[in-house]
Specification:
Oligomer: heterodimer
Distance between the termini of chain A: 45 Å
Structural class of chain B: alpha/beta
Radius of gyration of chain A: 32 Å
Number of helices of chain B: 3
Largest sheet of chain B: 5 strands, mixed
CATH topology of the largest domain in chain A: Phosphatase 2c, domain 1
Strand content of chain B: 25-35%
Strand order of the largest sheet of chain B: 1-2-4-6-7
Largest interface: A-B, 23 and 24 residues
CATH superfamily of the largest domain in chain A: PPM-type phosphatase domain
Number of domains of chain A: 3
Largest sheet of chain A: 6 strands, antiparallel
Strand order of the largest sheet of chain A: 8-7-6-11-10-9
Number of strands of chain B: 7
CATH architecture of the largest domain in chain A: 4-Layer Sandwich
Number of helices of chain A: 14
């Protein structure tokens, strides 16, 4: 299964104003960055930069700021990472140039490190607090998955649905609006279409440039055409509206400049205004020829921080009057206002997409947790312990255990192949099926066959499958009966004997609707321990890439001291063993296990 | 952390993090253990997953302490992240770094 990771994230947290809390918050920030798919070396560098920023916030707290929280906000998209540390301290003065102190100085390297480890560092000092923002481009690692980006119209729909995002954007618009109130009569809230960058741009232009009479010296124009660049800067796409129907929708920006490039492309490439008038005629075949019928006009490129946002072309049909410098500067102002707004609107879309991914992960994790039994049954003479630990991206592992009246104990563990919400939803389905026919569970093979028949059609449709293991513990016969559907076989440890695998492998659920399974009965000696587990355990990886493996899993089971019987103690023992092995590595897959101990003779 | 005298050297090891919360403690406990006979202070940073600028400050303080008494400080087997911060701050020129 492909390991689909989110590449965008947007989250924040607050830490108490002391070094330990800030350290913990830094580690949380780094966990987030790892989740967003940053490489380990990048995360390590961020760890240092964020730690220095957080420590600074604590260090400069003084009496007034002591115990005031330090806020961390993290925004990651597929290109860059931005971390802002906000504090409520008197702050410090950011020197104009950040240099290293003498080699023998014991202080004064924090800012230097932050500067070295990031692309930009901004420090804003305010009356009630300060914000230090660190930004850095992500490495261009091609192995990083592309983000799960919804279609544009879906995003726009989501945007409309999300009141929070909407009010954020409106807040920004209105701030910008206040300062430009003298020229613009545009009100964003009056037009629902203005919620998209294109809609916003169109509304602005139609009200200002073609509106009912010029406002405050606005030039009278007869036509305009707006094209926006895609984020990679490879194409210019026309914004629906005035003049749009008459020209090709997309102009390519890639490739070397050509003598016959359309005027709009030339303006974008050269970053300079291009005129159209009797002295500067359009080349034959230029798309603007469909709109330009004489008179004069110009193409104005729109840039924000070196990034091409689009090109705005305006024109007047009457040849009698050329654009005055005042009129040109008005149109420049309109374009200058549009640029950042369009960029902001895009940023909001990106943030929204990041939120959606984060929410999906959260939902999957909650579903998964809800499937685990809150309390494990502990029938007389037996002890049962369970472990479940979700990976960064939740998979579809779960286990359950329940009593078959007073006759026996059913242990069930499974692994839905896949990740995220789809896997979690299949796990829900398995869970309810298991509970629906718990009466069948005393015959594990029949039970798996029944589950398979019910799940196969749908699993086949979505090309997923599930591995599962059932063990039925029968105290009266002092035996267990097991059956396996493509799952790691349960391990049995009996004091004084080698650990063995019990049962025979079978096909995973979902391979074929008429799979049959084989049941194996095995005596259950006093002191025996039985381990059911998912492959997140034996496929746990060390920092070196080495697998934990079945042998170490068996060794672990055999090494459990006979005196160790408590549910929490056994779980902690397994966790500690896995953690020690995995130290320095990411947990790639969910880990789930059930450990049954036969207590007395 | 672990401080041990081996011949004429004092060896400091098992420091998981040398950061703003732990640096002063590491510095002070090491100074307290330093005896006249110690000509060498070996700081083993092979277990140090994370070090920040305060950690650097502690190393410099101990370096000065050792120099002041005619001894030497050596950094033993630093982890990659420790090496990186030493190089970023150009202190790799100041410290004697030993890979054993």
């Amino acid at each position: 299964m492909p390991n689909v990771r989110p590449t965008a994230l947007d989250f924040g947290l607050e830490a108490a104003g002391n070094y330990e809390a800030v350290r913990a918050a830094t580690q949380t920030v780094c966990a987030g960055l790892r989740l967003a798919g940053l490489r380990n070396d990048e995360v390590n560098e961020w760890e240092l930069a964020v730690a220095e920023a957080g420590n600074n916030a604590v260090k400069h707290a003084g009496l007034a700021g002591r115990d005031r929280p330090v806020g961390f906000s993290v925004f990651v998209d597929e290109r860059s990472v931005e971390v802002t540390v906000a504090d409520h301290t008197p702050g410090f003065a950011l020197p104009a140039s950040i240099t290293l102190p003498p080699d023998d100085s014991e202080h004064g390297r924090g800012l230097f490190l932050m500067r070295q480890l990031t692309d930009t560092l901004e420090y804003v000092r305010g009356a009630d607090g300060n914000r230090l923002t660190l930004r850095r481009k992500r490495s261009g690692d091609p192995s990083v998955a592309k983000p799960v980006v919804a279609r544009r119209d879906e995003l726009v729909a989501q945007l409309a649905a999300s009141e929070a995002a909407l009010s954020d954007m409106m807040g920004e618009l209105s701030v910008a609006w206040e300062s430009l109130d003298a020229i613009f009569s545009f009100r964003p809230s009056s037009n629902p279409d203005a919620h998209t960058p294109e809609g916003f741009a169109r509304h602005c232009l139609e009200h200002q440039l073609l509106g009912v009479g010029p406002h405050h010296g606005a030039p009278q124009i007869d036509w305009y055409l707006l094209r926006l660049a895609d984020e990679a800067g490879l194409t210019l796409r026309v914004v629906p509206g005035h003049g749009a129907g008459e020209v090709p929708e997309t102009l390519a920006l890639g490739g070397p400049p050509r003598a016959d490039d359309p005027l709009e492309v030339r303006a974008a490439r050269s970053r300079t205004r291009q005129w159209i008038d009797p002295h500067h005629p359009l080349l034959p075949g230029d798309p603007l020829g469909a709109i330009f019928v004489g008179g004069s006009g110009f193409v104005h490129p729109i840039f924000v921080n070196e990034q091409l946002i689009g090109v705005l072309t305006v024109g007047r049909n009457a040849a009698s009057r050329e654009f005055s410098s005042q009129e040109v500067s008005f149109i420049e102002t309109v374009a200058g206002f549009l640029g950042p707004q369009i960029q902001n609107a895009r940023l909001h879309e990106a943030r929204l997409a990041a939120r959606l991914v984060a929410r999906e992960l959260d939902i999957a994790a909650r579903i998964q947790e809800s499937l685990l039994p809150p309390v494990l049954p502990q029938p007389a003479g037996f002890g049962l312990a369970g472990l479940y630990r979700a990976a960064r991206q939740v998979g579809g592992d779960f286990y359950t255990a329940f009593l078959d009246g007073d006759r026996g104990l059913v242990l069930f563990i499974c692994d839905v192949m896949g990740k995220g919400v789809p896997a979690a939803l299949f796990a829900v389905q398995v869970h309810s099926l298991v509970r629906a026919r718990s009466d069948l569970a005393s015959q594990p093979a029949r039970f798996l066959e029944w589950l398979n028949r019910n799940l196969a059609p749908e699993l086949d449709r979505v090309e997923m499958f599930i591995t599962a293991q059932v063990a039925y513990i029968d105290p009266a016969r002092r035996e267990m009966r097991v059956a396996s559907a493509g799952h790691p076989l349960p391990l049995l440890a009996v004091p004084g004997r080698a650990v063995i695998e019990v049962g025979v492998p079978g096909l995973p659920l979902g391979f074929s609707p008429d799979s049959t399974y084989e049941e194996v009965a095995h005596p259950l000696a006093a002191g025996a321990r039985l381990l059911l587990y998912t492959d997140g355990i034996n496929e746990a990886r060390a920092g070196t890439g080495e697998f934990f493996g079945t042998a170490k899993t068996q060794d672990w089971l055999a090494s459990l001291p006979a005196t160790l019987v408590g549910e929490a103690a056994i779980r902690a023992h397994l966790l500690a063993t896995l953690d020690q092995f995995q130290r320095g590595a990411d947990q790639a897959d969910d880990q789930a296990a059930l450990i049954l101990t036969h207590l007395d003779g | 952390m672990n401080l041990e005298t081996i011949g004429k050297s004092l060896r400091l090891r098992d420091i998981p993090e040398l950061n703003v919360s732990t640096a002063a403690d590491v510095r002070d406990r090491t100074r307290a253990q330093l005896a006249a006979a110690h000509e060498l202070l070996d700081i083993d940073l092979s277990q140090t997953r994370f070090m920040d600028s305060s950690g650097l400050g502690a190393l410099i303080a101990l370096h000065k302490t050792m120099s002041g008494r005619g001894g030497r400080l050596r950094i033993i087997n630093p982890t990659l992240s420790v090496q990186q911060i030493l190089e970023l701050t150009r202190l790799h020129r100041v410290f004697e770094i030993v890979k054993e």
